[in-house]
Amino acid sequence: MTNQKFNNRELLQLQKQLIEKKQGELIDKLEVITRMERLYNIEGISEEELDEFAFIMLDLFRREKSQIQIWEEYFKGDKEILKEIKLLHDPGYKEKMDREIWYLIQAIRDTIHTNDYTSRKKAQEILREMDNLFPAGRNFLNLVDDNHFLARYIHEFTNYFPENIANYIYKELKTYYENNGNKE
Question: Whole-model pTM?
Fold first, then answer.
């Protein structure tokens, strides 16, 4: 800025833009914290269990905005999917999905540890509920197999799930959508 010659009006505009940008970043961070606090307040969730996956959940929430923008661009020609993607901006909807994602992580962790019918059935029930909330999810799962998409956006979609849980989530989602008809 010192090498540039700005008049007062231009300096004010530049400061305003910088402050608005910082304000947007702070609002995004506050939303991430608020969403995490809501998870801690859900009855029946052990704080110790949530602590185990807090970093993962925080990272999911932090990346969500840029992921949604990528999906909106990628699916811009599909009005039905775009309509569903718009749901992802709604705070009430986010709250429901946050809870279901948490329950899914817990159910899959339990399934990996116990490998019994009851825990597998619980994971499948949660997937069914998530599919009811967000049917476009099957389209996003297909992106995992799209090498062009992954090469371009891998940095935005790399997550910190333990590998066994990430692999199990992928396997369960794939199986769920194959068994429940691929409604694309």
Answer: 0.76
